[in-house]
Amino acid sequence: MNGQPIIETVGLRRTFKGRGKAGEVEAVAGVDLQVQAGRIFGFLGPNGAGKTTTLRILATLLPPTAGTARVVGFDVAKNPDRVRERIGYVAQSGGSYRSSTGRDELIIQGRLFGMSKAVAAVRAQEILEALDLAEAGDRTCGTYSGGMRRRLNIGIGMVHRPALLFLDEPTTGLDPQARARMWEEIRRLRETGTTVFLTTHYLEEADALCDDLAIIDHGRIVAEGSPDELKREIAGDIVTIGANGHSDKIVELMRAQSFVREASMEDGLVRLYVDRGEEAVPQVLRLLDGSGLAPSTMNLHRPSLDDVFLKKTGRSLRESAA
Amino acid sequence: MRTIRDTWLIFDRSLWLTLRNPVWVIMGVMQPILYLLLFGPLLKNIASMPGFPPGGAFNVFVPGILVMTALFGSAFVGFGLCDEMREGVVERMRVTPMSRVAMLLGRSLRDVVILEAQAVILVVLSVPFGLELKIEGIVVAFGLLALIGLMMSPVSYVLALVLQSEDALAPVVNAVALPLLLLSGVMLPMSLAPDWLQKIADVNPLYHAVAAIRALFNANYGDTEILIGTAVLAVLAVITIWMGARAFSRAAA
Asked: How high is the ipTM of this complex?
């Protein structure tokens, strides 16, 4: 953990020419990132937040408009080929061709990294077996299930044993079972020493799978840390009250209480940030009863990453992602 | 070295993928066969008209059909690339250290091989109609067909990389290919054309390609059109290959 970070960016920016009168669109607006080797790093954010653009810059596919990015020790703009030798990249669009067989795709990938035919064939077989695709290896990729195809794509990305693997939304569109399977594969990659950099807009995925997270919104990093650290930033618990149309009054009332750190409202719900949720709930109930502001619902929960996102951006990731 | 090796790898892969699903190859040769069968016989009587170039009707007609096959065969290769781009194949390979020229050249050489195979079929089928085989000339003519493929397929790939979808590509390719074809004297010799049309045709590289291949098919090996056609195609092929390689290294697809 003390060595050089495997990814380090300073002031990374990328603008695109907008359509029509829109002028320039800043997809990545000054990103400073450090990713340590051997970790699963999650890049969390709603669609259009700049996740994929950042990933594409780091994977040498897109030159940055400003700023620098060092990946596996080399500058992506100055030494892209050195970076490419040591990274793997799996795009959202996949990478395997449906008319080609899984085995052929793995072999050609190995050969493009300089392996001989024989070495590439051995490596292809190894990967097919590791990913439980041995039987499907000689079928065309078009016949694979969604989960199988996704596993193959990751296999293609790791043929040359990269130090760092980029995965763009690796589980989007997968059913829960295939997703769990994918998480397992990603954890196994970490065990072999591969650093994994993935993007996701699933909170559960970021929480359960990633060692470190950066939350990105509108092209900027809004929070960074391990899932636990991020959640701890929101001290205490959260009480959500169904306000029955009395949001304003309830917020006003609650802000006056010493046990409430913060109160906010959103879509007819009042959110209270409190130190001890289990003690706060009865007090809140008594207060509401006493003021004739009977709530429709009440809910106590520990902070989730969505609460982190909400607090940092004022929006819920669940809604933005939908 | 890396470029040659990578070119071979991409060529090999592309050729296999094409042969695994040869519908397009067969479609590509069916159309010119129909021209041979259903249009060729009309020429027998026209061949004696004034203005028709010397040589047997089929020795004039087949070169045109071959150029048409080469033009349309290579103009539409971008469709296959759109398909590969959509599945992320191009992007995946761009994150390898492989040669960018090879991404283009491997595919274009595959296109040339397919084209030559189609040309052989067409020439063989034309013999019963009265095509006289001038072997040396035909061999050199096949070299010119390869140059047409090397010139046109990069154009199609560049357009595919820029436009990114078959829907956008189809009208553009048609808009480029059809005038090139009509102004090349493929169907009927441009010597029958009025002056102004002839002048426009003069700047069409394919017009010179057709003229050169006709001269070769008729064993007029001293015809300067052979040199002109070869030089024009070779220079243009170098330019389009260079453009194509650049497009692959930049592709934001």
From this structure: 0.89
